[in-house]
Write a structure and sequence with these properties.
homodimer, DNA-binding, 12 strands, Rossmann fold, 13 helices, 3 domains, 16% strand
DNA sequence: TTGAAAGCGCTAACAA
DNA sequence: TTGTTAGCGCTTTCAA
């Protein structure tokens, strides 16, 4: 790595002259600037970011804590985060908590060691289930700035980005009802999170509004991937239904596939919808209509929020809670 | 952030005493050590990693450049990288190249600014298609250590981790043939990469070995997601076939779904196999047998290699090229 | 057993 | 217009 010192030596000037020349300070002669810049170019000089960070307490780096990168939703959020962070001149230090609180604590420790300006987190399911947010509280006390996304918690005061889960599922359910559907099976592989209960509320709300009876046996729990196929098969074989709504990224694809195997004659009459994006919707045929969660947008918004917060030096900030719009994409 | 200086002041000792006490140096009195450690604990002192990095030229951070995080394969590799890096005490600075060379160049620039000890990269498809590896050559000249994975290039001398693409597809094809299949359709959505041609070679090799004629119209190009369904539909409707092999992560799921729609009577007679993992294989019903690419393992191996290389101070290293074993998982 | 000083690469206030 | 100096947080050598 080329350093200022080396440039200075080669050019027979002082380190500070080189530093100033490179930043186009107006107290350096044009001639000198030119010489300095040329040599810097030739030697492919890049300022050492560690030194800059140490000096200025600004790292231009964002921490990102993601529960599960194998979940396409989080992968897409990460994509949005990266894209936006890059556009704004930030790098990302990424940690995957693997849904456990301990890994999350470690991650935040790492992120606290002066290496980031702030972080973006969606808490692990374990954290949410045990309601153990002490590490985030601690971060807050140490004035470390962070933004929560997707799995947001009401007890933590900070900036948040999510979708309106209840509304998203309400709209999708209503979309089905308006197509004349009334015997709708509800699929979820999401563990016991706020998101999950909000989504179910949206489902119930829509049924209620349209005077449709809630039937507990029409709500399938597919958390366990090993038994999911069996659960769906059993349901398909022994119930009358005319639509399916999945509140995660996978279950609708699965359901449709089983439907085609066990009741092929019904495929055209039964409408399936799930959370997805334009690409994953096409894994199924016919392609599934889907609830577009705008995961990329969530990531972008999270980045905007954290950068805004980083730049905001006020002591008593008013936190923002952004709801990214979702929409039903009919294919 | 608590610093050594602050601790020193509070304890009325010097900075160097604190530093040594915390690292258990044997020239510091037990009593002092105890006092220092207690206060450090209370104030939740964490050494500033930037300062450590600046001082020691060791960052314990790995750069990771990934072409496409929405591809489940790369997501899983990233998972493996994170897991292993963490286990070995490294953090990861992740960049997504989005399949373009320019982003990749930027990423490597970022990674070069003294922030990482080495990086792990799978080149963008653009980089490979234009055969433009100057940025990697440059990195090599600057003695920056890196490991290539998956999309490895013969012209770059460095450590590499990949699967034996030809062999993997050969084995899977042969697995189909041994089940009595001979009219096998070949599906690929992979752009023109080495991987792609190696996989096709494996396919041809197996056909050849078992005296099966190669039929170009049995090799479907599904690169364009918009036309993929149509292409498959047309094929299914107008050809006799008894098996399908997909050399990517999505096409087999898609193919099976279209098959069930257009030739449901054949589903039980036609065997589909694709690259997948235990989870994605279950998106289809019946679950697909799959070629297990061991993406997690690839990530882990890449981390092991880069760490080994970082620790190796020799001038003329012998580079390793690891082939991770694949296997056909019959469901 | 403890502390002072130098230095990693950089910036910025101040001096020349 | 250029250079000197101090300091960001840390480790380490050497001196006390």
């Amino acid at each position: 790595m080329t350093t200022l010192k080396q440039l200075a030596k080669l050019l027979n000037v002082s380190v500070s002259t080189v530093s100033k020349a490179l930043s186009d300070a107006d107290d350096i002669g044009e001639e000198t600037k030119k010489r300095v810049k040329e040599l810097a170019e030739t030697l492919n000089y890049k300022p050492n970011k560690l030194a800059l960070g140490l000096k200025s307490n600004v790292t231009n780096t964002l921490g990102v804590v993601i529960p599960d990168i194998l979940n396409p939703f989080f992968a897409e959020v990460l994509y949005g985060i990266q894209k936006q962070a890059n556009a704004k001149g930030y790098d990302t230090l990424v940690c995957i908590s693997n849904e456990t609180t301990q890994t999350e604590i470690n991650a935040i420790q790492l992120l606290k060691q002066g290496r980031i300006d702030g972080f973006i987190i969606s808490p692990a399911s374990q954290t949410i289930q045990t309601n153990n947010f002490t590490h985030l509280e601690a971060a807050k006390n140490e004035r470390i700035k962070f933004v929560m996304f997707d799995r947001v918690d009401n007890n933590i005061q900070t900036d948040k980005v999510s979708i309106d889960d209840q509304k998203a599922v309400f709209s999708a359910t209503e979309w089905l009802i308006k197509k004349g559907k009334s015997k709708i099976v509800y699929l979820s592989n999401i563990e016991n999170l706020n998101i999950s209960s909000d989504r179910k509320k949206g489902f119930h709300e829509a049924l209620h509004k349209h005077n449709i009876q809630i039937q507990p046996e029409f709500e399938l729990n597919l958390t366990n991937i090993e038994t999911a196929h069996k659960t769906i098969e059993k349901f398909i074989k022994s119930n009358h239904f005319d639509a399916a709504i999945a509140v995660d990224n996978n279950s609708a694809i699965m359901f449709q596939s089983l439907l085609k195997s066990f009741k092929p004659e019904l495929v055209n009459q039964i409408t399936c919808i799930g959370f997805a994006n334009s690409k994953t919707s096409k894994l199924a045929y016919p392609p599934l209509s889907y609830i577009n969660q705008n995961a990329t947008k969530i990531g972008e918004q999270a980045v905007d929020l954290i950068i805004e917060r980083i730049k905001d030096k006020s002591d008593n900030p008013t936190y923002k809670e952004i709801k990214v719009a979702t929409d039903v994409v009919e294919v």
